[in-house]
Specification:
There is one protein chain. With 422 residues, this protein is of the alpha+beta class. It folds into three domains: 110 residues, Beta-Lactamase (2-Layer Sandwich); 82 residues, Helix Hairpins (Orthogonal Bundle); 158 residues, 2-Layer Sandwich (Heat Shock Protein 90). Helix content is 46%, strand content 20%. The chain contains seven helices and 14 strands. The strands form three sheets. It has a six-stranded mixed sheet with strand order 1-3-2-6-5-4. α3 runs antiparallel to α4 and α4 runs parallel beside α7. The longest helix has 49 residues.
Length: 422
């Protein structure tokens, strides 16, 4: 900025030279500059010289020397009167005159420091006030968060009701909505734990009571036949309790899940064949005819093959349990343009129409309770199907028996492809 003022002064002097009427060329003229009583505090001690193209001095300020201040054009830092000066050498149009203007660096620094002081000092005075305003503004804007934090911290561990959002500012509302979703999931998980504990205690009470009764019979029985029969009933009760505990543990692992962590490809037909082979010994004990109908071509789906194998075995075990001796059970895999299915059909009594909608409820065994099932097999299958983007369908067949099928919708589900096209 101060260099610009030097340039402005030089241009003004050049403009004045163009109108000057000087009769005697080469005559040196001096202009007295009043340096003692400046009119303005920012007025600076300027020195100037005017030289022509032949190197003759035409004009100069009162304290300026009669020798050139500098011997080059443009801006330069020089020493004058033993002090550092800033100068500018500028030629007039036509290169007729050169004007050299200089001012002390000390004066420039004083002006710069004074201007900086006047600019910065009010800022230092205002900083505490601004800091207070910023603190109050931030505190006021964070108050809704404090209200939400207090609302959450003041709750008991059993209070999982959603946080009220009507009076919540729009900036905090997404956080409150996310917290409400978390509270809903926690409430669902706690409700499952309570229900699971109550159901487990209720269902385990019956087989344990039966085992205790048979053990007491064994203790007081006088003959070996009665004791042997009681011991066999104890073994059956232990098997039933073990099966129930195994099913409960499966549900405990499945219920907290919200989806598949990592889906992998599996061959639906091969998985169905493996499930049939695993339960075949149980069918042979009842002299049942167990068959598997493979798909016309291998069919690939994505999901958790271990879970799906468990669901298939549960369907097959249910069919074996409810099918009479010497009955027939057929499992198979087929697909259409928009769906794929794993199905199990048996020659058992089927299920009453009013029981079909309730068979996937936990511990519901319908009217046919003589089979000794736990009432958890079909709920486990339904839960596995949900996690693998499938659904469980149950229906009575016209010729008798029940059909249970796992069905996938191919266009809406995960990537599906016939292995024969690879």
């Amino acid at each position: 900025m101060l260099d610009g003022q030097l340039a402005q002064t030089a241009h003004l002097i050049i403009a004045q030279i163009g109108y000057a009427q000087i009769e005697e060329r080469g005559m040196q003229q001096s202009i007295k500059l009043i340096n003692g009583n400046n009119v303005h505090p920012y007025e600076q001690s300027l020195e100037f010289q005017v030289w022509d193209a032949q190197g003759r001095l035409w004009l100069h300020s009162d304290n300026a020397p009669t020798t050139p201040i500098a011997h080059h054009d443009g801006y330069a830092d020089i020493r004058h009167t033993g002090q550092p000066w800033r100068m500018l050498a500028l030629w007039s149009p036509g290169h007729r005159f050169q004007v050299q203007v200089a001012e002390p660096v000390k004066d420039r620094e004083e002006v710069a420091i004074d201007l900086a002081t006047h600019s910065v000092f009010p800022m230092f005075l205002a900083l505490p006030f601004l800091a207070g305003l910023i603190y109050l503004a931030v505190k006021q804007s964070m108050r809704p968060l404090d209200v939400v934090a207090y609302s959450v911290s003041a709750r008991s561990q059993n209070n999982l009701d959603p946080i009220e959002t009507t009076a919540t500012p729009i900036e905090v509302r997404p956080l409150v909505i996310a917290l409400n979703r978390l509270l809903a999931r926690l409430s669902s998980a706690l409700e499952f734990e309570r229900r699971f504990t109550a159901d487990a205690a209720h269902e385990l009470r019956t087989p344990l009571a039966a085992i205790k009764v048979q053990a007491q019979v064994c203790q007081v029985s006088p003959d070996d036949v009665t004791r042997s029969h009681a011991l066999s009933q104890v073994a059956c009760g232990v098997d039933r309790a073990s099966h129930l505990i195994e099913q409960l543990l499966r549900l405990a692992r499945l219920d907290p899940l919200y989806g598949m962590s990592e889906a992998v490809p599996f061959d639906l037909g091969r998985l169905g064949q493996e499930a049939v082979d695993e339960v075949r010994p149980a069918a042979q004990e009842k002299n049942q005819d167990l068959n598997f109908v493979p798909p016309p071509v291998p069919l690939q789906l994505h999901g958790d093959p271990e879970m799906m194998g468990m669901a298939m075995r549960n369907l097959l075990e249910n069919a074996i349990r409810y099918t009479p001796r010497d009955g027939t059970i057929t499992a198979g895999v087929d697909h259409g343009p928009t769906s794929a299915r794993f199905w199990v059909r048996d020659s058992g009594p089927g299920a009453p129409a009013e029981d079909l909608p309730h068979l996937t409820k936990r511990f519901y065994r319908g009217r046919n309770v003589a089979s000794g099932g736990s009432g958890l097999g079909l709920p486990i299958v339904k839960r596995v199907a949900e996690l693998n983007n499938a659904r469980l369908n149950l229906c009575n067949m016209p010729e008798g028996g029940l059909e249970a099928a796992l069905e996938w919708s191919l266009p809406e589900n995960l990537n599906t492809k016939l292995l024969g096209d690879w």
